Amino acid sequence: MSPDTEILASLDLDYILIPSSLESALQPKYAAIKTKSIFLDLKSVEGMYKSIEELGEMFGRQQQAHKLVDEYIDFMDDYKTKNEGKEIPKVLVLMGLPGSYIVATDNSYVGSLVKLAGGTNVYGDGGGQEFLNANTEDMETKDPDIIVRCAHALPDEVVDMFNEEFQTNDIWKHFRAVEEGRVYDLSYEYFGMSAGFDYP
After folding, report:
1. Which of 31, 61, 182, 191 is deepest in the core (most CB within 10 A)?
2. pTM score > 0.90 for this model?
3. Could you say which of 3.40.50.10710, 3.30.70.3040, 3.40.190.150, 3.40.50.1980 is the CATH number of the domain covering 90-185?
4. CA–CA gap between residue 21 and residue 144 (Å, rounded)
């Protein structure tokens, strides 16, 4: 991602809001055009709501920010109560890229959603990394109850790629999650690389 800094400079902006994952690449460019940038933690839902609180403070919109945060807290309290005592599934999260895929850990946005929903990511926090390269033999040893597949970009191509991979690579039929039909494709609209403010 490389926004046109000339266009941004011409807009005479007070601030540019950017995911913190892009800070090292974009902060020097925005500093060069003398525009303040605010980097938001969108790697998890918790990070997004912390960013909402910070933006509320910064822009004098504390009431609106607190309303959003309170709605989130109430929802999560209700969700935890309803799901208390239920079995905790082991989940393998695959992030598809055109032509390949990687494993998403708890440190990725989609991985954080698995944890938030009460699942256990079979690769945990990945030693602090968001994504890992892992071979299918290693994935099989993790014995996931559920496999979720999501796309980084070009979702239609990625779904086709995953379908072909799961049909033609013989090892997948040995995964219990595949045998039991517990493989799910997550909608790109809701499950991308980072949290967003455009949820329903």
Report:
1. 191
2. no
3. 3.40.50.1980
4. 28
